[in-house]
Specification:
mainly alpha
């Protein structure tokens, strides 16, 4: 596990294994282009934890959205309006999810159960 005091090398290794580990890095390392690029290539959603400046870096954002279209929401507003980024985002959904159909089905069932339980508990 890493924290805000972890060394650059340790953070780089951690984000290569699990991109979302970027959340626990120091602010300085969240602004390190090499570390953030490694994180978003492993899991595009880790863009959420990158510095504001790197969320506005087209190369970083393109790598993140290419890995996961869900990363689009963490890009700067300017890049969300960029046609290259936007088309890559749409392309990610056109290709369909990168997970098994059964996992999607199970996720939908769980969502429905939680929704029903929330409605039920609101009526109690």
């Amino acid at each position: 596990m890493i924290n805000k005091y972890s060394s650059r090398d340790k953070v780089l290794k951690a984000v290569k294994d699990v991109g979302l580990n970027l959340e626990y890095a120091s602010e300085e390392l969240k602004a390190d282009k090499k570390i953030v690029m490694a994180a978003v290539k492993q899991d595009g959603r880790s863009l959420e934890y990158a510095s504001k400046e790197l969320r506005a870096d087209k190369k970083i954002v393109m790598a993140a959205v290419n890995q996961s279209p869900w990363a689009f929401e963490f890009a700067s507003e300017k890049l969300q309006r960029n046609k290259d980024v936007y088309f890559l985002y749409l392309e990610g959904f056109r290709e369909g999810p990168k997970i098994s159909g059964w996992l999607v089905f199970i996720g939908i069932i769980i969502f429905i159960i939680i929704y029903i339980l929330a409605l039920y508990s609101a009526n109690i």
